[in-house]
Write a structure and sequence with these properties.
Length: 107
């Protein structure tokens, strides 16, 4: 994707396709936004995480899903967690990204 500023260290994409939407993506999205201190998709102020809405991650049978640094995270990847438990776990994983060490230095 074309960017006007350097990419962040981590990319989080919340699937917003029809299946994921019906299975609870809106709650996951709200939890991730809150966890990152964002009001909409974009980059965190510390340059650590980009949040993007994705119209389909192609994992409908595993929905709802989130991609964190190219890894699909859904109920199966989280040991069968669903609903509020899954939402909370995804929010914790995303918050942890900001606390991690940078992968590279910035100019």
């Amino acid at each position: 994707h074309f960017r006007l500023k350097p990419p962040t260290d981590h990319i989080v994409e919340v699937c917003w396709g029809p299946t994921c939407h019906l299975l609870g993506a809106q709650k996951i999205l709200q939890a991730v936004l809150k966890s990152l201190g964002l009001s909409q998709e974009g980059d965190t102020s510390d340059g650590m995480v980009s949040l993007k809405y994705n119209t389909c991650l192609g994992a409908c049978s595993q929905g709802p899903v989130v991609r964190i640094d190219d890894k699909i995270i859904g109920p199966q990847a989280l040991g069968g967690l669903k609903g509020e438990a899954m939402t909370q776990r995804v929010a914790e994983m995303v918050a942890h990204l900001q606390k991690g060490r940078r992968k590279r230095t910035r100019a």
